[in-house]
Design goal:
The protein is mainly α. 45% of the residues lie in helices and 0% in strands. It is built from two helices and no strands. Helix 1 runs antiparallel to helix 2.
C-alpha cells in the first residue's frame, strides 16, 4: 500500500501587535461627592418635611416640598451620568 503524503502544517505566527490607543479619561473627582450630596440633601428635605408635619423646611411651599426633595434626587441622578 502506498504511503500517504504528510502535510506540513504552517508554523504559528502570532498576529501583529497592536499599539494600545491612549484613551485619556479626564479626572472627574467632583462627580461622586456632588452626586451623593444631592441624594442626601433630597432625602433629608423629604424626611424633615414629613417629621415636622409640613412646617419645615419651607412652610409656604406646602406639599411642593416633596417635589423639591425629589428634584434634588433627580439632579443627583443627572450628575451621575458624568461619572466615568
Amino acid at each position: 500500500m502506498p504511503k500517504s503524503r504528510i502535510r506540513k502544517k504552517a508554523d504559528y505566527t502570532p498576529p501583529p501587535s497592536k499599539q494600545a490607543a491612549n484613551i485619556k479619561l479626564t479626572s472627574r473627582g467632583w462627580v461622586a461627592p456632588v452626586m451623593l450630596a444631592l441624594f442626601v440633601l433630597g432625602l433629608a428635605w423629604i424626611v424633615v418635611f414629613y417629621v415636622t408635619d409640613g412646617s419645615l423646611p419651607i412652610d409656604s411651599l406646602g406639599n411642593w416640598n416633596i417635589v423639591v426633595g425629589f428634584g434634588f434626587i433627580a439632579a443627583g441622578f443627572g450628575v451621575s451620568t458624568q461619572w466615568k
